[in-house]
Structure formats: structure tokens, C-alpha cells
Amino acid sequence: MKGWTGNYLRINLTKQEVKKESYSEDFAKKWIGGKGFATKILWDELKPGIDPLGPENKLVIALGPISGIMAPNTGKVQVAAKSPLTGGFGDGNIGSKVAIHLKKAGYDYLIIEGKADKPIYMHIENDKLKFLSAEELWGKGTFDTLKLLYDKYGKNVGILTIGQAGENKVLYSVIRCMEGRAGGRPGIGAVMGSKNLKAIVVKGTKEIPVANPTGLKKIGIEGLKKAKELDNEVGWTIQGTTGILSWLNEVAALPVKNMRKTSHNDAWKIDGKRLSEKKIATYGCPNCSMHCGLAIQDKERHKVEMDYENIGMLGSNLEIFELNQVGSLNYLCDDYGIDTISAGAVLAFYADAIEQGVIKGNFKFGDAEKAKELLKKIAYKKDEGSLLSLGTKKIAQKVGKTSEDYAMQIKGLEISAYNCKFVPGMALAFSTASIGAHHKESWIILYELTKTIRESYEKDKAEEVIRLQRIRMGLFECLIACRLPWVEVKLSTDYHIQCFNEATGLNYDMHDFEKVSDRIYALTRAFWVREYPNWNRNWDYPPTIWFDSNNADDEGLIKGKILDKAKYGKLLDEYYKIRKWDKRGIPTKQAMQELNLEEEFNEFLQYIS
Ligand code: PTT
Ligand code: SF4
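A: This is the predicted complex of the input protein with iron/sulfur cluster.
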């Protein structure tokens, strides 16, 4: 096997035992890597109904066939487990040196099982793995932890860690790494915490086996150069992901006030232009020629990297329009290891529910200082922080009084920073994403609002959602590579496909990756249905207030407009038809057979009536 190492580590924390195992070439060709590997492993190895925070859950850390290789944007790593936030399939993608070091250590993935009896961290160096006491690290934030570990092991290692939120099993805690990055929105940090695993340090020095080193080097360097050239032409990295904020404000799709509003006069104060003016540093992932992370100084003078989602959810959605205060909230989320998107949604929901008289509390939209206090309480599950640590869906279920209508989540995962109360295609993209409401699998909003009729619910929107899901999931989440050069500066996907072929010696084209994506989509959906056997199509609907005319904007571009539930239902039917899923959103026998998932379907059959 070339490109892939063919090896992985099965690490049992209860027994503190590690086994080096190998997997078959068929498995590699069928699932490619990253999300593909994680999906199949979690389907095969997790019993339905297990406690996501119990020792039976498994944490998968997976790479792809071009990870670590000098090719465009290959410094990304997938983290996955059964999600404690949603109870379904959960994963995330982090830019980290772990992608390079783990591959050079000789592994394509880690399966981490069981639970250590005391806090530990792991140190992997090529063929050696040590379990070490994390006594001195436990209780520390991610910045201090990372610093201590880098001081100890030097800069030339990859590290993943959790903060206090992961230790305390906040249901939306993430995994962090030094490169200003975070991932695993559906509580993958809590899974790591539940295993008493504070950090993983990896160093690899071996050669990565590839089929055609010369061809790969040529294409890889060409791709990196091309991405840089394209970025120089369009200047996307001047504002990075935050460039989108002012546009969303203009087109009335910005999250404002728990997504009750879609734009705000003060939005310019926290937009990409302001951020780039205040920039003090730029961060980026390894193997990337277009670093996009802009860092500013926050209110407390910390250096903090800010991406669009963070500003949208911790800024406009909370009606906080002071950039350095939004920076402080972002910094705290990073330090405690809390997902910024869910944190922003939870705090906004809390302020909203207080305003509606549904919860008693002392927090209002716009109150940055109180928001900081609340983040600390969430990380330590103190006072109201304990309730708030559960995420909007579970909080609303506890609080009742129709608050679920404005808990801005789908399948339990908080909606990222696109307010789709009148953007049907993007609402469908959120509702059909494989982990709950994340934008990463289909970001149709730009196409929808610039190239189609906004109020249309025609089939072409379902087709476009699926087209994007196929490219993003099949190619970028499996190889694994950052999708932003393709999305933002239009780097052709050919570079990544060619890199894959030069690395593996295979001859795949986009169609092959699309098929892998469909396979992953079918199996992640089967995973959800297996966990929730009463599955029905309501799981694929956005929150009620996006259909409620009382919640329509009372001024501006989309005054009086709101999603139409009946038409949305028809659009969802179109989506199911293309995927060959039934009216409940369950993959049919035919769909699974066509994707070579016969065995999986036979197992799945017992969960569907
Ligand atoms: C991602 C989600 C995002 S998506 C953002 S900002 W974005 C938030 N970042 C957080 C953060 O920071 N700190 C924190 N405590 N919580 C955070 N939660 C949010 O997490 C990120 C970039 C970005 S910036 C995006 S869009 C792209 N995402 C990619 C992806 O998903 N796959 C892929 N192959 N390439 C991608 N490239 C881009 O990477 P999750 P990252 Mg993260 C500090 O992980 O769980 O998927 O949630 O990925 O390495 O931090 O890079 O406007
Ligand atoms: Fe990381 Fe940005 Fe480069 Fe993507 S474009 S690899 S998110 S620095």
C-alpha cells in the first residue's frame, strides 16, 4: 500500500495497552481516510445506545492518504466519536502538526478506547507510546497546557489537548492545538475528558511511503504555488473567513439576537475590515501557502485568532459589537476548550429565554462582561453554568414552555453563523449535514443568494446541496485537506485528486470521491437511525422560529419573509429522492446496495421497520 501507511494504533486506556495493527487495502480504497475511516470504524465498533461519555465510546483520530505530504493544505486531522451533545455521529477537523507527525510516525489513525483511572497524556514517538501522568496539566487551560508540553518536547511535535471544559465534560467542548485551531464541535473534547486523557503529543520522523515521489512533489509544489498566486489576485487572506460578515449583514443572513434578526447597524464594527486593521499576527495550519487566521489583541491584551464563525456567534448573535470584547470571549472559549459556535448560541438562547420570562437569570444581550463570567461558569459547570453546559436542545427540553422553538440547533448541534430564516437551500444544508447543523459539508449560501432566486424551493437547490456535500465530504474530509483554497480562491480540485493518485498509485477521478461521499452519508445516517430507532423526517427540519411569521424581520431586505414549511418539506423530498432515502430520511436497501454497503444494511435492517 502506498500513500497510506496501512497501520494504526489501538490504544486501550483502561489497560494502558497499545497494539499496532494493520488494515486492508480494500478498506483504504473504499473509505479513503479521515471522515471515511472514522465513519466505518465507529459503525463497526460502537454498540448502539452506549453512553458517549462512558469508557465504551471510542475516540478516532484519523488522517488521510495525502496527510503530512507537501501538498496543498494537508495539515488537517479528523477527530470523531459518538457525540455526547447530540447522541449521534460526531466529528470535526483541526489544522494541526499532528497530521504530519502521526503520518511520519507510521500511522493513519488511532482508536482510543476505555478510560484511564487517573488523568494522563500520551507521548507517541515513532514506534514508542508512553502513558504519562497529567497531574500537573489537569485543571489547566489549553494555552498553558500547550506551552508546558511544547517547552518539554520542543516545537517540532504535534499536540492535541483539551481545556477545563473537556475535563468537566461540557457537552460542546472541543479539542485544541497550538496553531490557533480547534475542532470537534459535537463535544469530542468531552469524550477525551471522559477518558481522563488530557493531551496527545506526537513526533514522527519516518519517510511517508508514496507511489510516485517525483510526480507528487511536482504537483504538490505546483498546487501550493497556485493557491498563493490565486490568493494574491483576490486577496482573500487579507480578511480571511471574516470577510463574509459584512456581506451577510447586507443580504440579511447574519445571526443577530439569537438569530431573531438578520442584520444590525453596528455590524461594521466587528467586520473583516476592522479585524484586518487591528491585526497583530497571522496564524495558519501546516502545509498551507495562504494562512488565513487573523489575530488581534483582546480586551485583556491576549493575542487571539478570530474566524468568522467566532465573531458571528460571540459578536452579532449576542449583540456585542466591540471587537476586543468579542476577542476576549473567543480567547476564553479557546482556553477552556469550548466550541465558540455552540457557546454563542447557548448564551444567546439564555438571554432570549430570560427575555421571554421562561428562565430566571441575570444576563442580557450586549453584556460582554457577564458573558465572560458565564463562559467560566460553563467551563466549570458552576451555578447556572451547569445547565448551560448541556447545549440549547437539552436546556430547552428541561426548561420547556415552547423554548425549543428558539433553541437554534438541528439534531442537537447548534447552527453555525448563517441565519437562514429566509435562505431555504442553506437551511436544507444545515438540516441534512451528517453531524447536525454545521456548514462544513455544504455551504450553498453564496451560490444561493447570488446565482438563484432566494425564495425558490426548486429541485436545483437540493441538487446543489448534494453536489457540495459530495465534494466536501468525499474529497476534502477524506484526503484530508483544507477546502478553503478551493472555496475561496478557486484552486482546482484537480490538484488534490492528482496528489492522491501520485501518492497511492491509483487512478481515481472526482466521480470515485463522490461515491465515497455518498457511502459516508448513507452510513452516518444509518448510525443516527441506529441510535434513534424512532427516526422520522422531523430530524431534518430547522427550528420552528425559522417558519414562524411572527419571527419575520419587521424591516430591511427580507421584511415579512420567512421559510415556508410546506415548500421546505417538498425540497427535503427532492433531497431524499436524489439520495434514494425514503420519506423518513432513511437510506433504502437499493441506496445502500449501490454503495456496496450490503453487510451494513443487513445489520441496519433490525433498527428500521
Ligand atoms: C469548525 C468550527 C469553525 S468553522 C470555527 S471558525 W470557520 C470555529 N472555530 C473555533 C475556534 O477557533 N475556537 C473554538 N474554541 N471553537 C471553535 N469552533 C468553531 O469550529 C478552521 C478553518 C475554518 S475557520 C473553516 S470554516 C474551514 N473548516 C474546514 C473543515 O471543516 N474541513 C476541512 N477539510 N477544511 C476546513 N478548512 C477551514 O478550517 P470543526 P480549524 Mg475546526 C480557534 O473543527 O469541529 O469542524 O468546527 O478547524 O483547523 O480550526 O480551521 O469560519
Ligand atoms: Fe488553515 Fe486557513 Fe490554510 Fe485552510 S486556508 S489550511 S484554515 S490556514
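The pocket of tungstopterin (ligand 1) is lined by residues 76, 92-95, 174, 180-185, 241, 285, 305, 307-310, 333-334, 338-341, 440, 476-477, 480, 482-484 (CB under 6 Å). The chain has a mean pLDDT of 97.
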